Amino acid sequence: MFLTISTTGTPERPATDLGFLLHKHPDKAQTFSTSHGTAHVFYPEASAERCTSALLLEVDPVALVRRGKGKGRGGAPDSALAQYVNDRPYAASSLLAVALSTVFKSALRGVCAALPGRAEEPMQLRVEVPALPARGGAELVRKLFGPLGWASVEAEPVALDAKFPEWGDSRYVQLVLEGELRLADALRQLYVLLPVLDDAKHYWVAPDEVDKLLRAGEGWLAEHPEQKLITSRYLSRRWGLTRQAMERLELVRLAEADDLEVEDVDNAVDETTDTEEKPVPLAEQRRDAILEALRTAGASRVLDLGCGQGQLVQALLKDVRFTEIVGVDVSVRALTVAGRRLKLDRMGERQAARVKLLQGSLTYTDKRLGGYDAAVLSEVIEHLDLPRLPALEYAVFGSARPQTVVVTTPNVEYNVRWETLPAGHVRHGDHRFEWTRAEFRSWAHAVGERDGYGVEFVAVGPDDPEVGPPTQMAVFTRSDETEKAKNTGRTRNTGKTPNTDKNRNTDKTEAEKEAKAA
């Protein structure tokens, strides 16, 4: 993807002021990491008379397809024209809009400490986008940019193939904008209208997109004749969000008409008594889902394996039905922080009797962990190297064998919905892997079948129809028949004792040896 911004100047007001306003020095070529590729900023020309800044975005089409397979996965309904051939590296879209907001963040806000007065003044600008997808054709491009103060809006359709003119034009245009505008206004317009013309976004449109739209549309969107189309397309036709944005834009319009602040117009509700619910953090949703699973299982004595800084232990203590809570972690430092969080040194005797913090490794069997109703592995397994995972499986499912085991882990498919997460990156630097829903289910079914547990799956967080929830949770319930057979010295579905059962796979055998040796 490629975009250039040019300006002209005089000896008194040199064109190279553009470098100050963009916060990018004309003598340097700079590189920035974005959610789906690498952005390069450089200046093909930089003199007092004329200066041009270029933004080149390199998108990895393979990573884009792998992170969003099939229609709608990755945002755009046609993001993959074939398995690894798509237009995303070349055609300006929401990918380029995100790069604009990442690379020219201060310029978008109109902030320039070096030349504050210049940032507030209009300047002669020429913006060129060689390949811009336009669902609605060149006419829609002119309808969108025409009312925004540009002296000239050129949208030249790109032929499907110049050698075969009878094939007609593609849906792409070559865009050239010329006019005298504030640089911040021009950038904000591009930030909104690039994905609007493409009519697609590469990431999940969450409620905070309404605020992004209103910030970028400040000063021009409320009065735009195509306001409804812009709002609907920018918010990916999510009608609830579109309606919310339209209502807020109408307040802006009314306030501007009466020369008032929006707060003075929208004053029917006392903010001190406002009961509007705020989005619940994913970590809190995850804890709530775990607590609900434990209550449903009827557990009272619970292990929090890999308890970290004790957030789940703290939540369990608030519910009196959990009579014994044990937090286990390999990190002494984390356990120290958990102790401070729980205020163990000031806790009453009765409350202190309910909770215990233990240092231990989850890849080794531990007699202290036997006999509990339930165990929780919340965001733990992805921190292990895959060759070590069978050892944990045996330590928990084969040795400790609680009645219920709750496991949560990230759903890697959902990562495409986080705009700020670079392509191919995991959510945390210490994650050794992140699984798709199919991979997690395959692992859970294999563990359950081998160790005598049934398993159910629960979506945690918003369940996206294309990529699923951000967190996936499995609830394992031990089979009484398997446990009975185990206690009588026989394994399920065989007539052999565990000592002669050769059906266990090699990974588990090695895990048992390693765990018992410890």
List the helices and strands and how they pair.
Blueprint: E1 2-8, H1 17-22, E2 30-34, E3 37-46, E4 50-59, H2 61-67, H3 94-103, H4 105-108, H5 116-119, E5 123-133, H6 137-145, E6 152-159, E7 169-181, H7 183-198, H8 208-216, H9 227-234, H10 239-257, H11 262-265, H12 282-297, E8 301-305, H13 311-317, E9 324-329, H14 332-342, H15 349-352, E10 355-359, E11 374-378, H16 389-400, E12 404-410, H17 437-451, E13 453-460, E14 471-478, H18 480-487, H19 506-517
Parallel strand pairs: 8-9, 8-11, 9-10, 11-12
Antiparallel strand pairs: 1-4, 1-5, 2-3, 3-4, 5-7, 6-7, 12-14, 13-14
Characterization of this structure:
Helices cover 35% and strands 21% of the residues. With 518 residues, it is an alpha/beta fold. The strands form 2 sheets. Strands 2-3-4-1-5-7-6 form a 7-stranded antiparallel beta sheet. A 7-stranded mixed beta sheet has the order 10-9-8-11-12-14-13, sandwiched between helices.
- What is the beta-strand fraction? 15-25%
Distance between the termini: 55 Å
Shape assignment: elongated
Q: Based on DSSP secondary structure assignment, what is the total number of beta strands?
A: 14
